[in-house]
Amino acid sequence: MMDKIHKEILGLMGKIDINCWNEGDIIVIDLKGQLDIYNSGDVRKLIEAYRKRGFDKFAVNLKEVTYLDSSTISVFIHCFQTLEKSQGKFLIAGLQGAPLEIFEMAKLHDVFELYPDIASAIKSQTSESDSD
User: Fold this and answer.
1) Which of 31, 34, 59, 125 has CB 3.0 to 4.6 Å from 67, enough for a Cys bridge?
2) Could you state, in order of their start, the residue ranges of all structural domains in the chain?
3) pLDDT tens, residue by residue, 4-18
4) For the segment 44-72, what is each residue's pLDDT rounded down to a tens digit?
5) Among residues 68, 75, 76, 61, which one has the least CA distance to residue 35?
6) What are the contacts of 97-103 at 24+ separation with CB within 8 A?
């Protein structure tokens, strides 16, 4: 069932290498390559498509993203704010190199929940829900 949903939604995407899977109720979005004005909107489309199907927790893996621009940051901020309003989550994992420098220069590490890797992002949510 979930495999079918992942494939259906991934069919909407453009050129960047995107893979998705779920860890419990968290959708992991694995991105590879360069995120720019030509494909950053795909990330928003992807999240909106999952949200329409009732998902509201996302962990975005940027470990293999080598470049991102201001349009990507705008998309991330939009997704973060939209999900925050609906008690959802938008977690960012694996930032390194130039993308990390951009986040630090723009003081975005104060805005987003950043994690060193996907495993720690997922763990942050599972331990949080256990304590409820």
Assistant:
1) 34
2) 2-130
3) 777 666 655 545 788
4) 999 999 999 999 999 999 999 999 999 99
5) 68
6) 97/66, 98/66, 98/67, 98/68, 99/62, 99/65, 99/66, 99/67, 99/68, 102/68, 102/73
Cα 40 → chain centroid: 11
- Which pair of tokens denotes residue 114? 């950043």
- pTM for the model: 0.84
Question: Residue 101: which residues within 8 A CB-CB, separation 6 or more?
Answer: none
Specify whether domain 2-130 bears CATH 3.30.750.24.
Answer: yes
